[in-house]
């Protein structure tokens, strides 16, 4: 006898989740892969993120930015995994460390390839990559980025400012043949 | 507006994060300043270039079958989700009744306003579980237990190693995902998040306001003195001297009790000795 799967506990939850959240899985994966650098890690991360989102979906407020909500969960899962892998020691605040090390910002070259941009972005410290990716690629507001990364709004703004200055510098350097490719 | 001011705000302008009045000032300046127009155009080009480059990068594409497999997995998991009908407090009376019974039996009762305080703590513990472990919406960033121990007391240090990362209970394995100290509605908790019975379950320890050191007789061990549901979340708790220990999660009450039973003794001894 073929065993029938159990009926859904609440069809409406799954239907709403499938409509609201699931379409973002593709972009969530790209973000996860960018940060993790490993397909296996990225797939695990997205699966856990989506599973937690499904379990918490009754708390998602319809009409708010679902992608931002998913990115917040993804960042939290990433943070937990980092902590689980190794007790994260308190490190020097890179915001402070980088404050005085941003070099002169060269003019951005007129002709930039996707490879130039990805390479330059990949050479930035991860903290700056995070805010730039969430702002420019995921199009999250500063407030949504602050929530996702659990950092103050002012920190988001200062990291974006410094990160973009560094990025422009890297883009100038990449055209001059300096720097290492990431992708 | 000076050029330097505009350069400071250019990225926020492009991100549409500025007030309308400031936007108008910037637009007025751009009408007359060629250098700033070029600067804003270059910034816009980089932003758009990043978006385009990441979205077009085939190296970041998921495997075609991954999204399909993910959908199948989630659809299957959705069948086992509990039916929800919004936030309810149906279990609160059971929790309150159990607390009252415990008090009536003389279990760990000491101090004024004890019932109200424990009720408020229980609600804060559930709020922390929902907003930290599940919903990731805390106003204040969690800190390491080591740092909390340095700032707030030795009890936090106890939680760095207790319970161990893997706890075998009578109904299954509980694995620690996270340990930290966090604040919810003004209450500071040592917070340990487990993966247990397919759910995130929290162990939260809070100091009782004005709590006195309880000297339990001899080798007395903690009893689970209250159990119930708050906001659809199962809650189990016991007292360890000046601290309340809560277990909260969307799992059956019996499963939560099994976890509490498995970790209560060493945790109790550690907290009493802290």
Structure description:
The complex is a heterodimer of chains A (183) and B (274). With 183 residues, chain A is mainly alpha-helical. Chain A has two domains: 75 residues, Rna Polymerase Sigma Factor, Chain: A (Orthogonal Bundle); 82 residues, Winged helix-like DNA-binding domain superfamily/Winged helix DNA-binding domain (Arc Repressor Mutant, subunit A), CATH 1.10.10.10. The radius of gyration of chain A is 19 Å and the shape is elongated. Chain A starts with 10 loop residues before the first helix and ends in an 8-residue tail after the last helix. Chain B is an alpha+beta fold. Chain B folds into two domains: 58 residues, no CATH class; 182 residues, no CATH class. A seven-stranded antiparallel β-sheet of chain B has the order 1-2-3-4-7-6-5. In chain B, a hairpin with a 2-residue loop joins β6 and β7. In chain B, α1 packs parallel to α3 and α7 packs antiparallel against α8. Chain B is elongated. About 12% of the residues of chain B have low confidence.
Helix proportion of chain B: 40-55%
The helix tally of chain A amounts to 9
CATH topology tier name of the largest domain in chain A: Arc Repressor Mutant, subunit A
Counting DSSP E segments of at least 2 residues, the number of strands of chain B comes to 7
Shape of chain B: elongated
- CATH architecture label of the largest domain in chain A: Orthogonal Bundle
* First-last Cα distance of chain B: 59 Å
Helix content class of chain A: 55-70%
Series of secondary-structure elements of chain B, N-terminal to C-terminal: HHHHHHHHEEEEEEEH
Topology of helices and strands:
The complex is a heterodimer of chains A (183) and B (274).
Chain A: H1 11-20, H2 25-36, H3 39-55, H4 66-85, H5 94-99, H6 114-122, H7 126-137, H8 142-149, H9 153-175
Chain B: H1 3-14, H2 20-32, H3 34-56, H4 64-78, H5 92-104, H6 114-134, H7 145-152, H8 155-161, E1 166-168, E2 173-184, E3 187-196, E4 199-207, E5 226-230, E6 233-240, E7 243-249, H9 253-273
Antiparallel strand pairs in B: 1-2, 2-3, 3-4, 4-7, 5-6, 6-7
Helix pairs in contact in B: 1-3, 7-8
